[in-house]
Amino acid sequence: MLDLNKEQSNWFSNQVVDWYHLHGRKTLPWQLGKTPYKVWVSEVMLQQTQVVTVIPYFEKFMQSFPDIIALADADEDLVLHHWTGLGYYARARNLHKTAKIVRDKYQGEFPQTLDEVMDLPGIGRSTAGA
């Protein structure tokens, strides 16, 4: 493993950010009108699934479930139907469970602390950090 000092680490971080500003994707559907809900759904969909595959599913999902309340209020079978083709159906079930918790416990707003977010079903450190 590469051992970097603070100066080297800062330099490297700046290089990555500069590269992103020049070449990074900024027009993906979940980046336009960015909300915590869109980021969360996209992060879950993108787990073990390519971006090009996720885009049409994400767009259809957002049409049917435009916010966390709509997702929480939906029948689980409908959520799973929208997930058909993405695989790993536990992801869809966890989305639905989490949406209900956020609706009922947090008045439809994502919790503010990392620990509270990570306590939600299907959300680990990577997804919570997004």
TrEMBL record:
Protein name in the entry: Adenine DNA glycosylase
Catalyzed reactions per annotation: Hydrolyzes free adenine bases from 7,8-dihydro-8-oxoguanine:adenine mismatched double-stranded DNA, leaving an apurinic site
Species, as recorded: marine sediment metagenome
Domain called HhH-GPD: residue spans: 45-130
Keyword flag Cell membrane: no
Keywords noted in UniProt: 4Fe-4S, DNA damage, DNA repair, Glycosidase, Hydrolase, Iron, Iron-sulfur, Metal-binding
Cofactor: [4Fe-4S] cluster
Similarity section: Belongs to the Nth/MutY family.
E.C. number: 3.2.2.31
The UniProt record lists the keyword Iron-sulfur: yes
SMART domains noted in UniProt: ENDO3c
Range of residues in the leader sequence: none
Biological process terms in GO annotation: base-excision repair; mismatch repair
Gene Ontology MF term list: 4 iron, 4 sulfur cluster binding; 8-oxo-7,8-dihydroguanine DNA N-glycosylase activity; adenine/guanine mispair binding; metal ion binding; oxidized purine DNA binding; purine-specific mismatch base pair DNA N-glycosylase activity
A Pfam family assignment: HhH-GPD
